[in-house]
């Protein structure tokens, strides 16, 4: 009996170790159509509104930077915790929650209570990039969903649009991402939009750090008072195509956010910006490496967390 108990214990330990590792084939038997379901739903959404590709990528980033890639950003407030949606860096800017509901519903229709919201979000972020012309990478799966969220951590861990270079490097380093990773990941700003309130100070108060003609152009749709929700593309050249236009903009001092232009302002990241501005290949390669690292930030695996039936609420 002792030998049998020891064997069972060893098998349990081995299963737990295996279960705790993310792998591209995690749902190969339990939900073989998962990736096609996510891809097809994303394709429909991006065809209707290209911006959704950027929105899902940003949603994934803002999830992983707060207590890891655990879909906590999707949770609504409850009596026991205040969620992350209304944190400073998320308030009135995160999008894609309804699309996540649709993707989750489609996945549940084929694979009930099997696939986590955090894995769905990781796949949707990748597919959004690919659909807008960006690089493709293999997403490792097996994350579980958290049962709580942290408004406080979201306010501390997410880089604000006003951050200087030292702050940006520090926030990314706290997630084991290098300054090179940070600059490559910032290439995500080659797609998507920003609200006037996030870049107003940059275009009105930073004459030494922005192209004057570019600033004047942006003032037309972002008045000094009001118009907080007016939108502008983060990459004015190809806002709906994933390429290196964002970095060319930075070299021309046409970064929309203060934090964008900090990457090319006589500092340590200028060389990386120059590289990515002249080489889409270098950008794609480094972006994929950084996305893989970001996607593995503190995932819940094995017996931790849960598979939420609805992405907005714990079971």
UniProtKB/TrEMBL annotation:
<feature type="binding site">
    <location>
        <position position="235"/>
    </location>
    <ligand>
        <name>Ca(2+) 2</name>
    </ligand>
</feature>
<keyword id="KW-0408">Iron</keyword>
<feature type="binding site">
    <location>
        <position position="84"/>
    </location>
    <ligand>
        <name>Ca(2+) 1</name>
    </ligand>
</feature>
<dbReference type="GO" id="GO:0006979">
    <property type="term" value="P:response to oxidative stress"/>
</dbReference>
<dbReference type="Pfam" id="PF00141">
    <property type="entry name" value="peroxidase"/>
</dbReference>
<keyword id="KW-0732">Signal</keyword>
<keyword id="KW-1015">Disulfide bond</keyword>
<dbReference type="InterPro" id="IPR010255">
    <property type="entry name" value="Haem_peroxidase_sf"/>
</dbReference>
<dbReference type="InterPro" id="IPR019793">
    <property type="entry name" value="Peroxidases_heam-ligand_BS"/>
</dbReference>
<keyword id="KW-0106">Calcium</keyword>
<dbReference type="GO" id="GO:0005576">
    <property type="term" value="C:extracellular region"/>
</dbReference>
<keyword id="KW-0376">Hydrogen peroxide</keyword>
<feature type="binding site">
    <location>
        <position position="70"/>
    </location>
    <ligand>
        <name>Ca(2+) 1</name>
    </ligand>
</feature>
<keyword id="KW-0325">Glycoprotein</keyword>
<feature type="disulfide bond">
    <location>
        <begin position="64"/>
        <end position="69"/>
    </location>
</feature>
<keyword id="KW-0964">Secreted</keyword>
<keyword id="KW-0349">Heme</keyword>
<dbReference type="GO" id="GO:0020037">
    <property type="term" value="F:heme binding"/>
</dbReference>
<comment type="function">
    <text>Removal of H(2)O(2), oxidation of toxic reductants, biosynthesis and degradation of lignin, suberization, auxin catabolism, response to environmental stresses such as wounding, pathogen attack and oxidative stress. These functions might be dependent on each isozyme/isoform in each plant tissue.</text>
</comment>
<dbReference type="InterPro" id="IPR033905">
    <property type="entry name" value="Secretory_peroxidase"/>
</dbReference>
<dbReference type="InterPro" id="IPR019794">
    <property type="entry name" value="Peroxidases_AS"/>
</dbReference>
<feature type="binding site">
    <location>
        <position position="72"/>
    </location>
    <ligand>
        <name>Ca(2+) 1</name>
    </ligand>
</feature>
<comment type="similarity">
    <text>Belongs to the peroxidase family. Ascorbate peroxidase subfamily.</text>
</comment>
<feature type="disulfide bond">
    <location>
        <begin position="196"/>
        <end position="222"/>
    </location>
</feature>
<dbReference type="GO" id="GO:0004601">
    <property type="term" value="F:peroxidase activity"/>
</dbReference>
<feature type="binding site">
    <location>
        <position position="68"/>
    </location>
    <ligand>
        <name>Ca(2+) 1</name>
    </ligand>
</feature>
<keyword id="KW-0479">Metal-binding</keyword>
<feature type="site" description="Transition state stabilizer">
    <location>
        <position position="58"/>
    </location>
</feature>
<dbReference type="InterPro" id="IPR000823">
    <property type="entry name" value="Peroxidase_pln"/>
</dbReference>
<feature type="binding site">
    <location>
        <position position="63"/>
    </location>
    <ligand>
        <name>Ca(2+) 1</name>
    </ligand>
</feature>
<feature type="active site" description="Proton acceptor">
    <location>
        <position position="62"/>
    </location>
</feature>
<dbReference type="GO" id="GO:0046872">
    <property type="term" value="F:metal ion binding"/>
</dbReference>
<dbReference type="GO" id="GO:0042744">
    <property type="term" value="P:hydrogen peroxide catabolic process"/>
</dbReference>
<dbReference type="GO" id="GO:0140825">
    <property type="term" value="F:lactoperoxidase activity"/>
</dbReference>
<protein>
    <recommendedName>
        <fullName>Peroxidase</fullName>
        <ecNumber>1.11.1.7</ecNumber>
    </recommendedName>
</protein>
<dbReference type="GO" id="GO:0009505">
    <property type="term" value="C:plant-type cell wall"/>
</dbReference>
<keyword id="KW-0560">Oxidoreductase</keyword>
<feature type="domain" description="Plant heme peroxidase family profile">
    <location>
        <begin position="21"/>
        <end position="315"/>
    </location>
</feature>
<dbReference type="InterPro" id="IPR002016">
    <property type="entry name" value="Haem_peroxidase"/>
</dbReference>
<feature type="signal peptide">
    <location>
        <begin position="1"/>
        <end position="20"/>
    </location>
</feature>
<comment type="similarity">
    <text>Belongs to the peroxidase family. Classical plant (class III) peroxidase subfamily.</text>
</comment>
<feature type="binding site">
    <location>
        <position position="243"/>
    </location>
    <ligand>
        <name>Ca(2+) 2</name>
    </ligand>
</feature>
């Amino acid at each position: 009996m002792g030998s049998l108990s020891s064997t069972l214990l060893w098998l349990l330990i081995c299963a737990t170790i295996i279960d705790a590792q993310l792998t591209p084939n995690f749902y190969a038997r339990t939900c073989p159509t998962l990736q096609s379901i996510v891809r097809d739903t994303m394709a429909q959404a991006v065809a209707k509104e290209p911006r959704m590709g950027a929105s899902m990528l940003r949603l994934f980033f803002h999830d992983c930077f707060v207590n890891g890639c655990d879909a906590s950003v999707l949770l609504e407030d409850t009596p026991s915790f205040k969620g992350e949606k209304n944190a400073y860096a998320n308030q009135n800017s995160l999008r894609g929650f309804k699309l996540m509901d649709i993707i989750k519903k489609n996945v549940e229709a084929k694979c009930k209570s099997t696939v986590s919201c955090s894995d769905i979000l990781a796949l949707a972020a990748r597919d959004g990039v690919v659909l807008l012309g960006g690089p493709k990478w293999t997403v490792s799966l097996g994350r579980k969903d958290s049962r709580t969220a942290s408004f406080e951590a979201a306010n501390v861990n997410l880089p604000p649009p006003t951050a200087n270079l030292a702050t940006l490097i520090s926030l990314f380093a706290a997630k084991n991402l290098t300054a090179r990773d940070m600059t490559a990941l910032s290439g995500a700003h080659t797609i998507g939009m920003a609200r006037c309130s996030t870049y107003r100070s940059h275009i009105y108060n930073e004459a030494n750090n922005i192209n004057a003609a570019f600033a004047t152009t942006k003032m037309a749709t972002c008045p000094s008072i009001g118009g907080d929700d007016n939108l502008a593309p983060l990459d004015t050249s190809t806002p709906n195509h994933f390429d290196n236009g964002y970095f060319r903009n930075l070299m021309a001092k046409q970064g929309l956010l203060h934090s964008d232009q900090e990457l090319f302002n006589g500092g340590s990241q200028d060389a990386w910006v120059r590289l990515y501005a002249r080489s889409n290949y270098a950008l794609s390669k480094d972006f994929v490496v950084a996305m893989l690292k970001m996607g593995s930030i503190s995932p819940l695996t094995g017996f931790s967390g849960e598979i939420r039936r609805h992405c907005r609420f714990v079971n």
